[in-house]
Fold Catalase/peroxodase-like protein.
Amino acid sequence: MNSLIAALLPIGVFGSCPFMDIGTPPSLKAEVISDSDFKTALEGLDIEALEQDLRILMTDSQTCWPADDGHYGGFMIRLAWHCAGTFRTSDQKGGCGGAGIRFPPESDWEDNGNLDKARALLVPIKQKYGDALSWGDLISFAGTVAIRDMGGPTNPHCFGRVDDADGNKSDIFGVTDSWQDTDCVVQGNCQEPMGAVKVGLIYVNPEGPLNDPNDLNSGQNPDPEKSAVEIREVFGRMGMNDSETASLIAGGHAFGKCHGAGVMTSGFEGPWTTTPSQWTNQFLTGMLDEEWEQVATPSGSAVQWQTKDRTSILAGTMRLTADLALVNDDAYLALAKHWVCDQQKLDIAFAASWKKLVESGGGWLPVEDRRCEPESKATGQQTDPQKNFHSVCATTTTDDSQEASTATKFCLSFLAVVLTPFSLGVHSWLA
Ligand code: HEM
């Protein structure tokens, strides 16, 4: 009986959000306007007002789907990331242009669980701005405004993604039940031209790669080092290099939480930081400062990680195997240390990689018809007062200006040593 109540609780408490049928049309189709009508309407879009409306939405928690920590920011970033993260360089397909995430197959993927509620929350804003605001622009901008509203770094956002009327363009990515119809040979270890390792995921398995790369039923290997190899491969298929990949994960998981208790999404449970709706680099510092040990997810079916020190300030936070990949790979670790010693560098890297992510792929108006925010909208990339604060910095970095002045002093003394006897010699020869 108790388990029945527990199973019904999320439905009873949260009910169903209004507008679900508009964010995710049950007819699997939506009305779209012509490109030229969209171009004309976009010219009139009040981007400043839209940002203000989105900022209000972020903290306007609705009973149908209450905001974690009082802020929808993490939820909206995940929606935007999953909308854009389908992009693959193999054939330049995917991306948030077209907003294929609203329709099957994408809307049905296990990885996109509960994102129908995020789209439902956005419907009143879509209705207010009408044809001037495409779903692709709305979803991606909701992610950008979420980062801004939580104090994070962003670059100017560009508008002009043209919506599709259905999800047909995503058919090549496949549906989980009939993954054999795609170009994937081993489900769970798909290779190019597929973007993700599994039909139904956006990227890698959070719990690490398959134990046996040829067998979906071999289970996941929670080995951060092996996960790093898979992350590099899969984010590479999205056109992301090491710095772009690591900054995206470190920036993304600075916010929000995993849901595996009460609200069930991925089955993992807990936030990455002690302030999930505030931009910090605690996601990275936590992985450098703490030792992490494996623990079962609430359902017992998967592995996540907790701090070994159960009295730590981070004891209530968690890490995925794929998170720990960033400190179990030489190149990612070097980047992590670099950013922990100078958060401004992480700010700059994350703002740039986020912009690249949400602008990847086709489904746009021609470049001359797009609209971009002014450069002054680049937020949150301030000089870092905490520069070189972390203990790993003492040995790995020095202040740039100090480096420069040390180098100058070295050159001057070198010249003095070499030139003094010479000039003395010239002097005595002249004399
Ligand atoms: C290796 C790559 C990644 C893996 C394996 C991964 C995995 C996950 C998982 C399992 C969740 C929990 C979902 C839930 O239960 O609600 C999650 C949430 C989240 N992810 Fe990622 N993720 C990755 C990359 C990214 C990137 C690149 C971003 C954005 C730049 C991002 C942003 C987020 C955010 C903001 C949440 C929190 C959602 C919320 O608070 O509702 N993730 N991720």
Summary: The chain has a mean pLDDT of 90.
